[in-house]
Amino acid sequence: MRHDHIISAKQLSRADIEAVLDHAADIAADPAAYADRHADTLLGLLFFEPSTRTKMSFTTAMKRLGGDIVDMGSVESSSVKKGESLADTVRVVEGYADALVLRHPMEGSAKMASEFVDVPLVNAGDGAGQHPTQTLLDLYTIRENAGFDDLTIGIMGDLKYGRTVHSLAHALTNVDAHQHFISPESLRLPRSVRYDLHQEGAEVREHTELESVLPELDVLYVTRIQRERFPDESEYRAVAGQYQIDSETLEAAKDDLTVMHPLPRVDEIAHDVDDTDYATYFEQAHNGVPVRMALLDMILGGEPA
Amino acid sequence: MTDDQQLRVSKIRNGTVIDHITGGQALNVLAILGIDGTSGDSVSVAMNMPSDRLGKKDIVKVEGKELSQNEVDVLSLIAPAASINIVRDFEVVEKARVERPSMVEGVLECPNHNCISTEDEPVQSRFAVVDDGVRCEYCDTIIRDDLPAHILAE
Ligand SMILES: [Zn+2]
């Protein structure tokens, strides 16, 4: 792949995306064939904010490729606490590892960090910015379950702060998906994201309720609305309640609707949906491993098999 | 000669004449140049003068100042038709039109307080010039209006 650093889903062309997904599918079909692929490789994990799930997924992916990880640990116990700049931290850690994975609470952190290192750097989330590996595993899940041809997708919940949403929406312009965005007015897509989608010629519709658009959807991607986005508890409850689904809600959907969620969920998706054929969110989470294996394999110099 | 014309043609010895500023933008130009009159150098401003090319234009004459490339870059964003005349010893020694840059570096501050470029890191702010504003290369925030309000404090 042409890219050393994986910073934003925006940098990935359709061909790049298909190459990663194809490679992930090969790995998922025969993981044992890749078990010694990167035996002497160390992946450096720099997580400046907690994200156990993403960290475990990267760790699993590296170990399944035969390599290992070195972990900065929590910020509290590191030199960052003493006021070290991010630019200094990554320049030190690149000496320990063959590639870096960075999660940081500030937007643009991965982009900036990548300007200071020569080893490949993967953005595992930069504040409200980008989270490209989440996007790739989302795309993988969508392709496996609904396909990219004539795809109609609804993305619902917190569209303002949800970084997974921004990355995904942009990536979906590559496959000319029909995109519907469903959110309360106060949490609609930010202007910069709408601008981008518009520039890419995307077909974008915004809604404040799910009902009217649900029957058209091939995929419904649900995200969490966080309590802290609202001034008080009652306002939060009033709004969030309108963006929760259960098996009854889904009676109006197509039979082959795919319901996704980046997890963890709170109560956006009722547990009675879990046992339906719609539920795809656990499969989606599991797909993080082969997709991250594929990406690591490619940036570490392995050619797609 | 009326007082008005007197002002328009008043010459400066050494400094810069910025002509063909989009009508009404002169005070923003002064803001970009960090000029508030406290330095004691003479500054003339003419606003909404008739112009064949622009309809109405502003003119700024600043004694004792030549513009840096950064200043010219930001200037070009709010006054794309401006011309810059460098004056030495009452003569115009250099005349140039501003050019819209593709990138402005180290001039504007990102309005997103959660953007890494606003932190104490060894990088300059960097904005790509897009159709209707500028866009932070780090966090993607777009500034459309009131660019002078985002100029980095020196
Ligand atoms: Zn920024």
UniProtKB/TrEMBL annotation, chain A:
Stored SUPFAM superfamilies: Aspartate/ornithine carbamoyltransferase
Aspartate/ornithine carbamoyltransferase Asp/Orn-binding domain location: 150-298
UniProt cross-references to Pfam families, sorted A to Z: OTCace, OTCace_N
Pathway the protein contributes to: Pyrimidine metabolism; UMP biosynthesis via de novo pathway; (S)-dihydroorotate from bicarbonate: step 2/3
Residues engaged in binding L-aspartate: K82, R163, R224
EC number: 2.1.3.2
Keyword Isomerase: no
Catalytic activity, reaction form: carbamoyl phosphate + L-aspartate = N-carbamoyl-L-aspartate + phosphate + H(+)
Limits of the Aspartate/ornithine carbamoyltransferase carbamoyl-P binding domain: 5-144
Molecular functions per Gene Ontology: aspartate carbamoyltransferase activity
InterPro entries hit by this protein: Asp/Orn_carbamoyltranf_P-bd (IPR006132), Asp/Orn_carbamoylTrfase (IPR006130), Asp/Orn_carbamoylTrfase_sf (IPR036901), Asp_carbamoyltransf (IPR002082), Asp_carbamoyltransf_Asp/Orn-bd (IPR006131)
Keyword line: Pyrimidine biosynthesis, Transferase
Binding site for carbamoyl phosphate: R53, T54, R103, H131, Q134, L263, P264
Oligomeric and partner information: Heterooligomer of catalytic and regulatory chains.
Family statement: Belongs to the aspartate/ornithine carbamoyltransferase superfamily. ATCase family.
NCBIfam families, per database record: asp_carb_tr (TIGR00670), PRK00856.1 (NF002032)
PANTHER family: ASPARTATE CARBAMOYLTRANSFERASE, ORNITHINE CARBAMOYLTRANSFERASE, MITOCHONDRIAL
Task performed by this protein: Catalyzes the condensation of carbamoyl phosphate and aspartate to form carbamoyl aspartate and inorganic phosphate, the committed step in the de novo pyrimidine nucleotide biosynthesis pathway.
UniProt protein name: Aspartate carbamoyltransferase
Name of the gene this protein is made from: pyrB
UniProtKB/TrEMBL annotation, chain B:
Residue intervals of the Aspartate carbamoyltransferase regulatory subunit N-terminal domain: 7-99
Keyword Zinc: yes
Record's cofactor remark: Binds 1 zinc ion per subunit.
Pfam families per record: PyrI, PyrI_C
Similarity annotation: Belongs to the PyrI family.
NCBIfam families: ATCase_reg
Subunit structure: Contains catalytic and regulatory chains.
Record's protein name: Aspartate carbamoyltransferase regulatory chain
High-level lineage: Archaea, Methanobacteriati, Methanobacteriota, Stenosarchaea group, Halobacteria
Gene name of this polypeptide: pyrI
